[in-house]
Amino acid sequence: MPPEPGRIYTFYSYKGGTGRSMVLANFAWIMAASGKRVLAIDWDLEAPGLHRYFRPFLTDPDLFETDGLIDAFWSLAASLANKHPDKSGAAALDDDAESAIDDTKRRLTWKYFPKGGSIDFVGAGRQGAPYNYNERANTFDWKRFYDLGGAEKLTAMKTQLKMGYDWVLIDSRTGVSDTAGICTMQLPDAVVACFTLNRQSIEGVRAVLSSIRAYRSKSVDGSKIEFFPLATRIENAERDRLEIARKYARESLLEFLPAKFSPTKNPAANPREYWDKMELAYRPAYAFEEILAAFGDATGASGAADTMLSQVEAMAQCITDDDSLRMPDILEADRAGVLATYALGPSDGLKIKQVREADGGAGDTDFLRGVLAKEQLWRNSKFFWRNLLSRRELDLITDEDRLSFGRNMAYYYANSARLYRFLNSIFYASVILLFPLSLIIIITLASMLESAGKSAALVLLTMLILLGLLIIFVLVGSAIMYRSGNRPEGMRRGDVFLLLLLAPFRTSEPHDYEAAEQRDLRHTASSRKRT
Fold it and tell me: Following DSSP, what letter does each residue of 430-488 receive, concatenated?
């Protein structure tokens, strides 16, 4: 029996500042901690930020190396413009949609996720400066994409995603836009509509939910999309004004409540039961960093009913209709370690290191982050070969690590591996070229010195001729090696020449990556020793 398809939920807000991304990230975390397969997609292309909530668990936390949604859409648009002649249209659409998204997924691992529980994350797009994310996001032509058959692509994508996950969660753009329409009308089974208690936010959400309900197309019936209005950033400072705004919001959005809580669909329903679980209070402690509530608040017996974590658990229970959902107990040491990685500015490095060493696999994440930083250094140095991976770093990278690499990182790894094949070729070439020539030079000089009557000028001339021959041999050898297919990107003719001269001594190889803070500590220690 095939597995039951999952559900796609879009988290939407009419205006910014509602905490929409925070809500989605926490919902995703609770579902994965409950053993569900979750895919979280940052579709807010104009102001991406969902990845910041997952920062401690991403190998590439700033997305400098990782392709994302906008990169996938550029790829999809290219495949539409160049149809596959050897496949039927439907098969090509399905394959392209699946492969484009698969290339951008990154798995978030956490030792508290039970078997079967996982989060795959798709960021908005590669954020590194050389890639000009803003230009790629702003110049993508959505109208042309649809003219080329983009609607069919999105339908194929929707089917593929639902077959691969229990929950697909989309962080939508605010307001009314092309991307917001895709997220709220064409893709979802349900929309979680976040709003704050002011007129613009309430009326904006109401208008958008009404337009979704009225939407019809060949593949979408908007009346079948379920809605979950969610009031956020509730401030209790001015109780009278709060009660007025709360009453206005609940009356305005009453018709959009799920059937279980809607008096018009279920006469026995009590909307108060819905709103008791679908309000999130404003918490000043969460205003400074993008922190998951599972780490911002205590879990288990140490937890409390009036925390952000308790409220997002109640929200998840209401949305899923599963009152058993709870965040598992987290050891305080593990919680402190994750919180330290969220912190802005300098932090207690020793404490973080100790916590990470206690958490199996966290050290692997630090190593991979160093590798990613070294790849950035390699590109910023115009592909200087000494910034390639060391032999030790190559050995430590696993097959699973390589499967998670993006295009640039895969290219960097391939060039690093090519470097050592090239250095081996250089070594054997030097043995073949230099040793016999050096032996001839030594024998010739020895015979000249032993021969009587040879003038010093003639000896000097012979030495210069032999030295010239040596240089010519090395130049010819380096030119041949330079044109060989094993040479890594960025290695120049002068580099090959020097390597050929020094190859017998094997002194020229890249070293392990050393982060800036490590260099500072080493330099400080050296200075103290000297003083």
Answer: HHHHHHHHHHHHHHHHHHHHHSTT--HHHHHHHHHHHHHHHHHHHHHHHHHHHTSTTPP
